[in-house]
UniProtKB/TrEMBL annotation:
Its cofactor is FAD. The keyword Nucleotide-binding does not apply. This is NAD(P)/FAD-dependent oxidoreductase. Residues 375-480 form the Pyridine nucleotide-disulphide oxidoreductase dimerisation domain. Residues 13-344 form the FAD/NAD(P)-binding domain. One of its GO terms (molecular function) is oxidoreductase activity. InterPro entries: Class-I_Pyr_Nuc-Dis_Oxidored, FAD/NAD-bd_sf, FAD/NAD-binding_dom, FAD/NAD-linked_Rdtase_dimer_sf, Pyr_nuc-diS_OxRdtase, Pyr_nucl-diS_OxRdtase_dimer. Pfam families: Pyr_redox_2, Pyr_redox_dim. Its EC number is 1.-.-.-. It comes from Rhodococcus chondri. PANTHER family: DIHYDROLIPOYL DEHYDROGENASE, MITOCHONDRIAL, DISULFIDE OXIDOREDUCTASE. SUPFAM superfamilies: FAD/NAD(P)-binding domain, FAD/NAD-linked reductases, dimerisation (C-terminal) domain. The keyword Cytoplasm does not apply.
Amino acid sequence: MRSDTSAADPDTYDVIVLGGGPAGENAAQYAIAGSDRTVALVEHELVGGECSYWACMPSKALLRPTQVLATARHMPGVQQKINARGVNPAAVLARRDGFTHDRDDTAQVLWADAQGIDVLRGRARLTGDRTVTVTGDRPRDLRARHAVVLATGTTAAVPDLPGLRAALPWTSRDATNLREIPPRVLVLGGGPVACETTAWLRQLGAEEVTVVARGPRLLPRVEPFAADAVAARMKVRDVRVRCGTQVRSVTRPDARDTGIGRIHGGPLTVELDDGSTVEVDELVVAAGRRPTTDDLGLGTVGLDDGAALTVDDHLNVDGVDGTWLYAVGDVAGRAALTHMGKYQARVCGDVIAARAEQRPLDGARYRAGADHGQVPQVIFTVPEIASVGHTAASARDAGIDVEVLETELEVAGAALARDDFAGHAALIVDRATDTLVGATFVGTEVAELVHAATVAVVGQVPLDTLWHAVPAYPTVSEVWLRLLETRRP
């Protein structure tokens, strides 16, 4: 059943989406696809969101030239022609700016318009059941017939440590949009953002890079062998890694807001909890993110203002009466990854469409099941880490009796790719069902291996069946055969 919009109030929409990042865009697109339903997409910054301008796209644009250079340096017949001094920073930054369109969202807005999505500029907050107020150049009070979708994402968390916030440190936005390369940098954090940032800062010319991580090792949520490989490579590249260490205080007498990606004033002195100090030209805070819910008006719908949201598998927000309020992407409190946010948004949009047309929510497509132990991820460190589902430790914590199959990435396809190709792979097998519940690959450009593993995990493919998924020769995917061979009698 479609909406009769012929005499609609201009401030009434079938669907209202708060937040114009990838998740918000997908939710809006799917909710109205093939119908005459209307949707408003409210965004106070740039349509395309964090991923397009400050995260995924610029960070990978910064990392890729280094990968290409490394491959060339380990390819006889090519390496002799390579300049030993490294990448050209100005050219790398220019290519990055091409992908982010110099933070101009005109193309994204044109895409939205072509999909029938009405883009509204301003900040939005809930004011009650299906009602939203938008502040900005044109303040408006909106009402949704069917659904409101929260897709406001997260923001970088800056710990409340003595002197840290006053020092105006870089966050991930500065690091991905850097205009100046600090000679000496301290990166606070040990997760994916911290480790990726370290990789491009070092390759772009930062002379001294120090990583300070509170936990006992880098990348605590991945398999230990993968984290150890990244730490070992950092050591080779003269990156100082201080795990099990905390920042006690930060001093920066000359802190100035010089703009995104520029050094924010004079040098900083960072005191660590062992009493030592580090002097740097810039400090990058990569210590996690917090949901952007502070000014969403959650109190008007029975939730605590600024609360962390949880959702069911239809992506409805827990604790709110009815089935009109949804959340997708990082703000939903599940896997904080762009591809998972877009996945949730597709499910959410389909659910909204089905409910609007009074169709049953039968079938897997209307439930976000991949968030439960089937999440793929690539960490674009040096070396790369590609994984899906459980690690051995998380599977055991979940009560699964597992068998771990492991091998080195020593196959013909890898040897042909480049002379220094190296890495390690592990499959996590549920003994009860003889199916995969997880996989991890670490090594040279292993990102493209993860989707095959994701299909095997999501499809619950028995290992006996995987024997008949023959890897093409000579490709790096031959590692699948080597992994299966480890359990032959």
